[in-house]
Amino acid sequence: SNNAEPYRAQLNIQLQAFIKKYPDLKLLPITDAKQDNSLQVSQVQSFISQHVDVLIVSPTEPAPLTAPVEQACAAHIPVIILGRTVNTDCYTSFIGGDNVKIGQLAGAAAVKMLPNGGNVVELRGLTSVSGQIERDKGFRDGIAVNPKIKIIADRDCKWLKEPATVAMQQFLAQYPKIDLVYGQNDPMALGAYLAANGAGRAKQMKFIGVDGLAIPDGGIRAVQLGELATTFIYPTGAKQAADYAEDIVHKRPVKHHLTLDTTEVTSANAAALYKQYDFSNQTASN
C-alpha cells in the first residue's frame, strides 16, 4: 500500500527473507502503490496478467481493491490479503491482527493512565480503511467505562508522522489541556510527541501507539526512551504469508482467516520484546 510507512518497509524486508527459505518460491519485485488506489489496482491487474501462482496484497483501501481481488479469484489465482480487508470473501486467506481488540487494549491502557478522566486527542490512519475503523471503535469502547475521558479532537493523518506532527501542533494551539494522545500507529503517535515536546508540553500528557516495530526509530524503542507510554505489537504477518504461499503452491490447506496475536509493550517488557522481535538479530542467527 505505501512503502513510506515504516511498518510496510519492515514487512517487505521480512517477506523477502522468509520467501528465500523456500527454494521453490520466487518473490517478484514488490510494488509500491504510494497510497494511490488506482495505481495499486493497476499493479494487481498486472500481476494477474502475468499469471502469478500466488498474489499477496496489502490493500490501501478496501473498496477499490475488491474488484481486482475478485478478478484474481476468477482467474484461479490464490490471494493472500495482509493486514487490511477487502469487501469480498473471494480470497484464499486473510492474515492480520485483531484491530478491535488492539483498540480496546489501548482504551484500557488510557483508562489506567487517566483514572480521574481527561482530554484525549486521536490521530487516525485512512478513514475508510478497516484497521482505522476498528482501532477507533475498539478504543472508544475501551474508554467508555470512564465517561470522564473525552476525545476532544481527532484527525486523519494517513498513518504518517509528518501530517500527525502538523495536526498535533494545531491541537496544541487550540487546546490548553490535552492529557493523552492515541495514535493509531506509532509514527503518528511519535509525530504528536515531537510536536508536544517542541512546545514544551510533552510531559503534560501520555502517548499511546500501535505497531511496536523492533527497529531503532520504532515503537518499542520509543517506549524504552519514555516517548510513548505504551504501544501494541501488530505483527507484520510476513512469516505466515511465506508459509501460506508455500502451502498453497503444494496444495496444502490454509486457514481462510488467520488472526495474529498482539502484545502490549511497557517499560517493564520493552527490552525483552525488542530482542524477541528484532528481525536483524533473527536473520543473523539463522
Roughly what fraction of the amino acids lie in strands?
5-15%
Oligomer: single chain
**How would you state the average pLDDT, rounded?**
95
Radius of gyration: 19 Å
- Count the E strands: 10
Shape: elongated
Taking pLDDT < 50 over at least 5 consecutive residues as the criterion, the unreliable ranges are: none
By secondary-structure content and strand pairing, the structural class works out as alpha/beta
Strand arrangement within the widest β-sheet reads 1-2-3-9
What are the secondary-structure elements, in order, as H or E?
Answer: HHEHEEHEHEHEHEHEHEEHH
Largest sheet: 4 strands, parallel
Distance between the termini: 29 Å
Given the structure, what is the number of helices? 11
Assign a percent range to the helix content. Answer: 40-55%
Which features characterize this protein?
11 helices, 4-stranded parallel β-sheet, single chain, 45% helix, alpha/beta, 10 strands, 286 residues, 15% strand
What do you see in this structure?
By secondary structure, this protein is of the alpha/beta class. 45% of the residues lie in helices and 15% in strands. It is built from 11 helices and 10 strands. It has helices at residues 6-20, 37-49, 62-74, 99-113, 130-143, 161-174, 186-198, 219-224, 238-249, 270-277, 279-285; strands spanning 55-57, 79-82, 93-97, 118-124, 149-156, 180-183, 206-208, 231-232, 257-260, 264-265. The strands form 3 sheets. A 4-stranded parallel beta sheet has the order 1-2-3-9, sandwiched between helices. Helix 1 (6-20) runs parallel beside helix 9, helix 4 (99-113) packs parallel to helix 5 and helix 6 crosses helix 7 (186-198). The longest helix is centred in the first third of the chain and has 15 residues, at 6-20. The two termini are 29 Å apart.
